Amino acid sequence: MFDWNRSCSYDEQHKRRFHTTARSKLKKLAAELALPPGSYDLRSNKAGIAVSGEITLHHDRVYIQVGQFGLSSGHGILIRTCRGRKDYIGGANHFVALGMLDDIPALAGAVRAITGVGRDAAQSSDRRAA
After folding, report:
1. pLDDT in tens, 55-88
2. Per-domain residue ranges for the chain?
3. Which residues touch 67 (CB under 8 Å, ≥6 apart)?
4. pTM for this one?
5. So which domain of life are we looking at (predicted)?
6. Which of 103, 34, 107 shows the shortest CA–CA distance to 65?
7. C-alpha to C-alpha distance for 126 and 130, rounded to whole angstroms
8. In what helix (H) or strand (E) does residue 25 lie, and over which residues does it extend?
9. Residue 52 phi/psi, 5° resolution?
């Protein structure tokens, strides 16, 4: 399992794994939320050597960004509403723990609760069972 709370600062190899793993998890989150292909962008900004940078899933109605900007608080996933993929300001900021990347159904539930975006849990379970 990936150690989300191990700092990426000054560790290029760990930073590369952080970005690769977070991108993969955000792709799974998009699938869990049933976001149609083409309705979102997935971006990675590695930034400078002293920071983790961020990985962003930017949908037409939700903006989700993963980074180590809240290590001291245990938070590192920003979730907010937006009005299109050119809206970089969006609605109010909500933060959840980086560790939620290891539980995509729970993270999807948080995204749905905060933004109203995505299929509900019952429909998601039905789809997987089919």
Report:
1. 999 999 999 999 998 667 767 999 999 999 999 8
2. 12-129
3. 51, 52, 53, 54, 55, 76, 78
4. 0.87
5. Bacteria
6. 107
7. 6
8. helix 12-32
9. -80, -25
